[in-house]
Amino acid sequence: MDSAQHDAVKPEPDFATLPSTPHTDQKLLCYRTREIRPKPTGYQSKEQTRTDPIARELPTRAARQNASANHAKPVIQPKAGELYFAYRKQSQCWLAALLLPYQELDDVGISGTVDSLGLSRNVPDCHSYNVNTRALEWREGYEDGGPSSYKRKFPIAYFTGPTFPDSGATDWVAAEDLRVLDESCLIKPSPVPHCRVVRTFLERRAVSGALKARMGNFLFLSGML
Question: Region labeled Disordered — which residues (predicted)?
Fold first, then answer.
């Protein structure tokens, strides 16, 4: 067959010669709109999807990761030292995050202070920052049982890369913007971004905690001698 004939646009069927019925009217409408229907945003051909592993994997991973966070339980009373899912606008996805205490950050396995992590520069209204003691306190009304306690925000450190904690990846978030992170979802293959960094942190913290416990027991026994 001649290529010109093959590429030629097929003539529109003569539906006018057919009696007007719901069936023929629907066929005519489908025929006229079939070729001009716009392709969805972000459309990729089957060939592109098959040959581009990045284009193929990223949407899949994002879907799995967002599904894990969206189906997780909401947080009512956040606890310092616990891991949660928290949505980060800069990354446009849910990330694992560590809820930080206001003091003694080494108790939850990280070095640094609220100052060094950049959290003292944008303290939310629910807190007051004592520059002398470098301690954060709840403002009046935000204390436990206070009328504004539901508006509290908590300091977190996101897992955004190989360096943790990163002073550029900290924030204050409300409890309603946190989701429970089940540590079983960190097992390979995991939909959680930077899951290897999260696992390494948890392992290091467990070892450090065990050493501190042993040292404490040793000092206690030494004091009894």
Answer: 1-32
